[in-house]
Design goal:
The complex is a heterodimer of chains A (287) and B (349). Chain A contains 15 helices and no strands. Chain A has 287 residues and is mostly helical. Chain A folds into two domains: 1-44; 48-286, MetI-like fold, CATH 1.10.3720. Chain A is 80% helix and 0% strand. In chain A, helix 10 runs antiparallel to helix 12. Helix content of chain B is 29%, strand content 32%. In chain B, the strands form four sheets. Chain B has a six-stranded mixed β-sheet, sandwiched between helices. In chain B, strands 13-17-14-15-16 form a five-stranded antiparallel β-sheet. A four-stranded antiparallel β-sheet of chain B has the order 2-1-4-5, covered by helices on one side. The longest helix of chain B is centred in the middle third of the chain and has 18 residues, at 169-186. The radius of gyration of chain B is 25 Å and the shape is elongated. The chains are: A mainly alpha (287), B alpha+beta (349). Chains A and B meet through helix 11 and helix 12 of A and strand 6 and helix 4 of B.
Chain lengths: 287, 349
């Protein structure tokens, strides 16, 4: 009892320190997070519901929404498959270059998105390495959906893998060995043993990946060419409309991205909670 | 199912896990692979199972060469040290797993699965837990469910990796006897790995002793205890006094009734219960001094000090039943004569 109290007192800073730390945190969050968030919606609805709806049903806005969904629809499954494959390889096998692979998976996090976009222009652009060959075969990558998908894939590929690698390493492979010893095939083992065990981590990665795929600006901006109604994604559309002094249009589109962010945040917390429950139940209890 | 291992070797990098292991296990036996940790016993078990590949050598199950066969084609049941129960499935579903993943033609229908799983649950006396999840069970219960799950596919050989390693001492004692009785009822060839010599001696009807990737000795528990093949086995199985041989000790051994040529071996091993104590009347003939004793239930462990090589005392242990010790009427510091009834020594390597 006594020691417990003592520790607590020892760890307690003076009242003024505590209150100023809390005040600084709250002020920062209010000023830099909440205020802008509120502003987005105030600006979006500045000229009423009607105007908001018109801006979002504008053909260019609709095209941007469609393209954003389409890009996410293509990228998320590919990233998921890549994430599962690489996490499986890293957690389960010993091979040469394993640590290199682990490091490279993180590369998109450390490279500026604009640089990532430029890489693709350099490779597939009109003056790029494969530019001539692509033109001869009538394939368009830069200033087209393909380029946007490629750039987004580059940016989002670590999300699922990074979530799964530590999870699968921690879990070990005894359960999978048990399934095999009971006669299950590799495929059955994956679906009935591995996947149920990693599902929350996997979904967590997918949610984050989806948010980034829909929200990516830098890399996509370089490769898209900002063609209205054709190669504008939602974030690019926000910039376009804003540059055209259409504040309501810009903030209306931005409000959609904000809703996406909030939904992502809620899902993320829910999945973190589920994962915590799983790992609590995994911790060895009494023997 | 009989198991024959021919010249099995396995290397992990520079570490030799197994060095030319030859072993034959007849059908229906309950065998313990015993050795200190890192001696290669678990690796050997995993090679028999097909979870690991040997670098060289053959695994024959029932006379058939299964060296390159997949774990699924070996007809084995494996019980993992940490149970490896599927944590997202109920106890029932865990046990049913092996039946549900059978190829469609061989798969039993739902009623048959139900019947079989409940029969297995009754066998391990845990039917009341069928709808629990693994994290709601105690360690001993998990172990028994893991065993039931392995038995569901009717394996011809059951492999258990340190089956009692993660359990409390009291639970472990119960489960050991239970496993032995279960084996008597099922009569399926079973191999288990353990580093606990008491466990091996108590449960198995055959013990194989490993050290540093070598097979040191195999035999029934009493063969191994009574006739250890070498110094390692003698030290590892049961308690033993190791008396190094030199001029000084040869004299002492002679006084205690053991005549041995000084160059016959490096040392002599004497089990504590092979040492008789006689109260000494004449001070000169005394071969040891009584230092202390401890009660081990029915037995008493007696700590004796004898003169060591450079005059410093050397501690040896004797063991005898309580009653016998009381009759001797000894107290601390008494001088005693010793009589060695039985001892081992091994050719100097």
């Amino acid at each position: 009892m006594n020691t417990h109290k003592l520790t607590k007192v020892a760890l307690n800073d003076p009242v003024w320190v505590r209150y100023s730390l809390i005040a600084v945190s709250l002020a920062t969050i209010g000023l830099f997070l909440l205020l802008p968030l509120v502003t987005i919606f105030i600006e979006a609805f500045a000229k009423g519901w009607q105007k908001y709806a018109t801006e979002l049903s504008d053909p260019n806005a609709l095209a941007a929404i469609r393209l954003t969904l389409w890009v996410a629809f293509l990228c998320v499954p590919l990233t998921t498959v890549f994430g599962l494959a690489s996490a499986w390889a890293i957690a389960r096998f010993e091979f040469r270059g394993k640590s290199l692979l682990t490091t490279l998976i993180d590369l998109p996090f450390s490279v500026s998105p604009v640089t990532a976009g430029l890489i693709f222009v350099l490779l597939f652009g009109a003056q790029g390495w494969f530019g001539e060959w692509l033109r001869d075969h009538d394939i368009k990558i830069i200033f087209a959906t393909t380029g946007i998908v490629l750039a987004t894939l580059f940016i989002t590929c670590p999300f699922v893998a990074r979530e799964l690698i530590p999870l699968m390493q921690e879990m070990g492979n005894e359960e999978e060995e048990a399934a095999l010893s009971l006669g299950a095939s590799g495929w059955t083992t994956f679906w009935r043993v591995t996947l149920p065990n990693i599902k929350w981590g996997l979904l967590y990665g997918v949610v984050l990946c989806n948010a980034r795929a829909m929200g990516e600006f830098g890399a996509v901006s370089v490769v898209s060419g900002h063609i209205q109604g054709l190669t504008n994604t939602l974030p690019l559309h926000v910039e376009n409309t804003y540059n055209e002094y259409n504040a309501v249009g810009a903030f209306a589109a931005a409000s959609l991205l904000t809703v996406l962010a909030v939904v992502t945040l809620v899902l993320k917390s829910f999945l973190e909670w589920q994962q915590q429950r799983d790992s609590d139940s995994r911790a060895p209890s009494e023997h | 199912m009989s198991i024959i291992l021919n010249h099995i070797s396995k290397q992990f990098g520079n570490f030799t896990a197994l060095n030319d292991i030859n072993l034959e296990i007849p059908e229906g036996e309950l065998v313990a692979l015993l050795g200190p940790s890192g001696c290669g016993k678990t690796t050997l078990l995993r090679i028999i199972a097909g979870l690991e590949r040997a670098d060289s050598g053959q695994v024959l199950l029932k006379g058939e060469d299964k060296t390159h066969k997949d774990i699924r084609e070996r007809g084995i049941g494996f019980v993992f040290q940490h149970y490896a129960l599927f944590r997202h499935m109920t106890v029932f579903e865990n046990i049913a797993f092996g039946l549900r993943v059978k190829p469609r033609k061989l798969r039993p229908n739902e009623a048959e699965i139900h019947k079989k799983v409940h029969a297995l649950l009754e066998l391990v006396q845990l039917d009341w837990l069928h709808n629990r999840y693994p994290d709601q069970l105690s360690g001993g219960q998990r172990q028994r469910i893991a065993l039931a799950r392995a038995l569901a596919v009717e394996p011809e050989v059951l492999l258990l990796d340190e089956p009692f390693g993660a359990l409390d001492a009291s639970v472990r004692k119960d489960l050991r006897l239970w496993l032995r009785h279960l084996h008597e009822n099922l009569n399926v060839t079973s191999i288990f790995v353990t580093h606990d010599q008491e466990e091996a001696m108590e449960v198995a009807n055959r013990v194989v002793v490993f050290n540093h990737g070598h097979l040191e000795q195999q035999g029934t528990p009493s063969e191994i205890y009574d006739n250890p093949a070498n110094e390692f086995v003698s030290r590892f199985i049961g308690d033993t006094n190791v008396i190094s041989l030199g001029h000084h000790n040869t004299e002492w051994l002679k006084l205690s009734g053991l005549i041995i040529a000084p160059d016959a071996s490096n040392s002599v091993h004497i089990r504590p219960h092979d040492l008789d104590i006689i109260k000494s009347n004449t001070d000169s003939a005394a071969t040891a001094t009584l230092k202390d004793w401890q009660h081990l239930g029915a037995l008493i462990r007696i700590e004796l000090a004898k003169k060591g090589v450079n005059g410093s005392p050397e501690i040896i242990y004797a063991q005898m039943p309580n009653e016998q010790f009381k009759r001797l009427q000894l107290s601390k510091g008494d001088r005693v004569d010793l009589h060695i009834r039985h001892a081992h020594w091994f050719d100097a390597a």
